[in-house]
């Protein structure tokens, strides 16, 4: 999230919290695709991490991008920490370890998404290349230790950094050493949201497997195909993971709001300053427990919006649904991730088929799959098959959904071609992580340094 929300309307009661989520309902002709992708900046000389400051640092890249694009700067305590397109059509933000993120504009087709991603990479390359900087498309930082990883001067991250070790063993790795590709998708009603939430929660481990791309940590193999996926198993389980209550046939906006109310907060913003609120749930905040701690200590709608942005379930509900399971990867994956989910969720016939395909998958089934995927990838067992077989069927559904959408580019091609890179994973039976491990053990000669060449933007 590039910019935290400022909305000073007071919250009067629970109905407003639920209505905030329900306001995301949109007619089908207004459905859009918002793609986010992160990458690790590094100095070509020595494959070293890029700090925030200096003439060749993250700040300099942001300032160069601001000059090139004319976007508005996002300032935190006097320092530029992001950019936003003036009409809200996209933003650039920083993750805690300097991961450079594009939050794309809400677009109508995957063709537009792919053009947007290519344009962004070309723009940032134009600014960064003279500084000797390139970007790495992996799901986990392969070389630098946590101590070697830079820290960005962003107030919310200071609060999170202090809090994470209290609630899990891997939260700092999540913050500073992982990258993802995500897509935000719309719904037309509470019932439509429920169906999409349930189908995408059940299939999120498959997405993790297909996009598994983080097999190295601290310069050596880490025993995982998706180290990032493993990290999310013990980051902060009060606010992340697989939400069992979402599997209920009656699940709705109010259920998600009730869950969110009992998750500890990270912060509130008052007078331009971030206040640490990690000792309090939003429900306690609503009850007035912060009156003696901060000026105007009662919650606002901006506080609620910000709180929702600090929840990290496998599929996150805001005024859209956010698919959160995939590792970051090469540029082709930037197009493949939204294509995968749009094909499944945006065509009515295919959503029916995907719902039927996963209908009898229980929470326990999906939890077991989620636990085995980080290590085993598409070879992970599921019932009497593996995720490779499941992936073959689900990709066929997604492809049909994209064909049914019929969104063609100027050359007459529909969006289904963007799934080709995932079809290759299923066809060869190995993930990107396994291909890298094979290279590491053969032509890379036991070194991860070639990854900075072969997986660089």
Automatic annotation (TrEMBL):
<keyword id="KW-0317">Glutathione biosynthesis</keyword>
<comment type="pathway">
    <text>Sulfur metabolism; glutathione biosynthesis; glutathione from L-cysteine and L-glutamate: step 1/2.</text>
</comment>
<comment type="subunit">
    <text>Homodimer or monomer when oxidized or reduced, respectively.</text>
</comment>
<dbReference type="InterPro" id="IPR006336">
    <property type="entry name" value="GCS2"/>
</dbReference>
<dbReference type="Pfam" id="PF04107">
    <property type="entry name" value="GCS2"/>
</dbReference>
<comment type="similarity">
    <text>Belongs to the glutamate--cysteine ligase type 2 family. EgtA subfamily.</text>
</comment>
<protein>
    <recommendedName>
        <fullName>Glutamate--cysteine ligase</fullName>
        <ecNumber>6.3.2.2</ecNumber>
    </recommendedName>
</protein>
<dbReference type="GO" id="GO:0004357">
    <property type="term" value="F:glutamate-cysteine ligase activity"/>
</dbReference>
<dbReference type="InterPro" id="IPR035434">
    <property type="entry name" value="GCL_bact_plant"/>
</dbReference>
<keyword id="KW-0067">ATP-binding</keyword>
<keyword id="KW-0809">Transit peptide</keyword>
<comment type="function">
    <text>Catalyzes the synthesis of gamma-glutamylcysteine (gamma-GC).</text>
</comment>
<keyword id="KW-0436">Ligase</keyword>
<dbReference type="InterPro" id="IPR011556">
    <property type="entry name" value="Glut_cys_lig_pln_type"/>
</dbReference>
<dbReference type="InterPro" id="IPR014746">
    <property type="entry name" value="Gln_synth/guanido_kin_cat_dom"/>
</dbReference>
<keyword id="KW-1015">Disulfide bond</keyword>
<keyword id="KW-0547">Nucleotide-binding</keyword>
<comment type="similarity">
    <text>Belongs to the carboxylate-amine ligase family. Glutamate--cysteine ligase type 2 subfamily.</text>
</comment>
């Amino acid at each position: 999230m590039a910019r935290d929300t400022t909305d000073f309307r007071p919250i009067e009661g629970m109905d407003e919290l639920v209505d905030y989520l329900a306001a995301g309902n949109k007619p089908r002709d207004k459905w859009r695709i918002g793609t986010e992708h992160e990458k690790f900046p590094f100095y070509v000389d020595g494959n070293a991490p890029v700090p925030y400051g200096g003439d060749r640092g993250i700040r300099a890249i942001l300032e160069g991008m601001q000059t090139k694009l004319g976007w508005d700067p996002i300032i935190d305590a006097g320092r530029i920490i992001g950019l936003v397109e003036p009409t809200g059509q996209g933003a650039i933000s920083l993750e805690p370890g300097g991961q450079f993120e594009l939050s794309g504009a809400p677009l109508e087709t995957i063709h537009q998404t792919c053009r947007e991603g290519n344009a962004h990479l070309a723009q940032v390359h134009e600014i960064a290349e003279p500084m000797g900087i390139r970007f790495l498309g992996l799901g986990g930082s392969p070389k630098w230790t946590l101590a070697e990883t830079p820290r960005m001067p962003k107030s919310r991250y200071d609060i999170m950094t202090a809090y994470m070790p209290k609630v899990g063993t891997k939260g700092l790795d999540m913050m500073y050493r992982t990258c993802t590709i995500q897509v935000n998708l719309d719904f037309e009603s509470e019932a439509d949201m429920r169906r999409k939430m349930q189908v995408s929660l059940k299939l999120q481990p498959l997405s993790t497997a297909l996009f598994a791309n983080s097999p190295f940590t601290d310069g050596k193999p880490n025993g995982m195909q998706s180290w990032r996926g493993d990290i999310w198993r013990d980051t902060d389980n009060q606010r992340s993971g697989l939400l069992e209550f979402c599997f209920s046939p009656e699940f709705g906006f109010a259920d998600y709001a009730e869950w969110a109310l009992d998750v500890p907060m990270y912060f509130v913003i008052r007078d331009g300053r971030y206040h640490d609120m990690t000792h309090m749930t939003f429900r306690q905040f609503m009850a007035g427990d912060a009156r003696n701690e901060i000026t105007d200590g009662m919650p606002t709608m901006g506080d609620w919006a910000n709180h929702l942005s600090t929840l990290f379930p496998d599929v996150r509900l805001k005024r859209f649904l956010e698919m959160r399971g995939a590792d970051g990867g090469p540029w082709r994956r930037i197009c493949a991730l939204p294509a995968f989910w749009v094909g499944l969720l945006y065509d009515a016939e295919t959503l029916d088929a995907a719902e039927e395909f996963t209908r009898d998958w229980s929470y326990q089934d999906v939890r077991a799959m989620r636990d085995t995927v980080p290590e085993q990838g598409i070879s992970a067992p599921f019932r009497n098959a593996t995720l490779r077989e499941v992936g073959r069927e689900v990709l066929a559904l997604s492809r049909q959904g994209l064909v049914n959408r019929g969104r063609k580019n100027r050359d007459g091609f529909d969006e289904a071609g963007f799934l080709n890179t995932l079809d290759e994973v299923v066809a060869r039976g190995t993930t990107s992580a396994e291909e890298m491990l094979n290279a590491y053990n053969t032509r890379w000669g036991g070194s991860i340094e070639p990854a900075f060449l072969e997986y660089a933007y």
